[in-house]
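Final report, closing paragraph on structural work. Over the funding period we assembled a curated collection of sequence-structure pairs, and we close with a single example.
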Amino acid sequence: MGRITLSPVASLGQPCFFHIIVIIIIIIIIIIIVIIVIIIMTIIIIIIIDHLPSGCPILAKNEYLMRHDKVCTHLHYSICKALAIETADKWYTHTHTHAQASV
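Its predicted structure, as stored:
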């Protein structure tokens, strides 16, 4: 009579069916975990991006005010350049002091 062995490798050197199923299940579990982590990280990033600065009133006031001031400075610089009024070399170093002196 033939002898039955519980070897993980069947005859002819091939892995047994049980081990193949276990490996496939482990791979599926790893893929599911990776997908869950990606979804969670995406949600966290969306929350952070939404919160800063528009969702945070403290930062929004400062950020919007600074952006407004920069746009106004560039606009004033461009108008002064177009009218041949003395200006700084760079728009971001431009000040409004000469405009206040002439008023």
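The CA atoms of residues 53 and 62 lie 9 Å apart. The first helix runs from residue 17 to 55. We thank the funder for supporting this effort.
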